Amino acid sequence: MENVWKKYDFSDEETLNEVCDDYRAFLSVSKIEREVVMNSIILADNMEFKNLDSYIEENKPLKPGDKVYVNNRGKSLALFVIGEEDITKGMNILGAHVDSPRLDLKANPIYEEDEFAYLDTHYYGGIKKYQWVTIPLALHGVVVKKDGEVIAVEIGEDDEDPVFGITDLLPHLGQEQMKKEASKVIEGEKLDLLIGSVPLQTDEKDEKDLVKKNVLEILNRKYRIEEDDFLSAEIEVVPAGNARDFGFDQSMIMGYGQDDKVCAYTSLRAFLDCPPCGRTISCILVDKEEIGSVGATGMHSSFYENALQEICNLLGHTENTAVSRCLSNSFMLSSDVNAAYDPLYSDVMDKRNASFFNQGVVFCKYTGSRGKSGSNDANAEFIAKLRRIMDDHNVHFQISELGKVDAGGGGTIAYILANRNVNVIDCGVGVLSMHAPWEITSKADIYEAYKCYLAFLQDA
Ligand code: MN
Ligand code: MN
Fold it and tell me: How far is the CA of 213 from the centre of ligand 2 (A)?
């Protein structure tokens, strides 16, 4: 296949740069699921979307052209534009996840050891632990006070802010460490964040843990956070700093959490840019994919079907078959990233079935591991329909698997909607260094993903 950059003319590059510049800016300020949801709602508000709750409370009927969203606990979001066609004929759905691998603070995180103060963490999702030491880290999330007040935390992103980090052994004394296998070089309980070294000034001679107390004093003074408040907090430790253009030719983007914000952003943008079309369209931005799509804010939660039930009711479909008919007749792109071919690690790829940078958006018929275990195996008929749509809209695409058959594997949210009888296929952007603190994507593939999602919403 030909490198898609060769096929672009000036107008392609103009739109490509616009989409990618906006994506890079969005990525820099949307590092955790709550920030993605908040920033997505701002974009939707600008397009005059309304919270579905306002319709439910007033029992106000929905009609074609209405734009609504459902905010599930600030961590997942479902958006809908009602089409002219009856909703039981199905929807065109884009679904991406907005959580990314990271370190979470434990419930009792703060401690002092030999006059250093630390925050204890528990890693979230599949990480190579050794990648998280000696890089600048930031804290993002919320602290919820007993009275319900929510204090947003974002420390380490402004130039004025301090950053935090995890130390590693110097090579001079690392002889024994360097003999360990990579999964044990840095152990989970050693992923503790160094946060301070100055003791609190006090007249009490016997007082202990003064460095920790000094940090707590600062937390209270600057952010009104007390030690007990960590019990009801969700604070995520993520790489500090902005997403950046990558390479001399600036053809790539490096940023934290591109799995799966690269598909979340392009899906949302295509959804918001989509001109009115016959079918109802929907965009799902969902939490907890990296740990199995569990919990109230993960794709296994009934929140999406509950929302759909409300929408069907407000459209006058009170029969109890409405939701199941709608889902059975729906098409969905589970928009998630794929492992791009890396010449430095070619041994884990089947080159004839790998995805490549600059070859366009990636369709993945099945994920899973070993004998396709845990996969959604998309129907050939559905793939044929998508091939036609992509060709009609001049979208460059490739079809791949995630690595060699016995090399490992992975999953997405695809099978969950497929279990509800939706026609689903995985479709997203290839990533280098996936799940590393800084992941790399190709701008051409980001642009093709956006074009693909737009074409799918209009024509599926
Ligand atoms: Mn993913
Ligand atoms: Mn992932």
Answer: 37
Pick from 113, 120, 119: nearest CA to 208: 113
Cα 437 to averaged position of ligand 2 atoms, centre (Å): 12
Query: Interior CA angle at 186 toward 403 and 126, to 5°?
Result: 35
Q: What's the pLDDT tens digit per position in 143-167?
A: 999 999 999 999 999 999 999 999 9
**In degrees to the nearest 10, what's the CA dihedral of 156, 72, 21, 333?**
130
Query: Can you list the domains of the chain with their CATH numbers?
Result: 4-100+256-459 (3.40.630.10), 102-239 (2.30.250.10)
Neighbours of ion ligand 1 (CB under 5 A): 259-260, 336
Question: How far does residue 210's CA lie from ligand 1's centre (Å)?
Answer: 42
CB 422 within 8 A of CB 416: no
- With beta carbons less than 8 A apart as the criterion, state whether 71 and 303 touch: no
Residue 434: nearest ligand to its CA? Answer: 2
Distance from the alpha carbon of residue 328 to the mean position of ligand 1, in angstroms: 24
pLDDT tens sequence across 51-88 = 999 999 999 999 999 999 999 999 999 999 999 999 99
Q: Evaluate whether 145 touches 151 at the Cβ level (below 8 Å).
A: yes
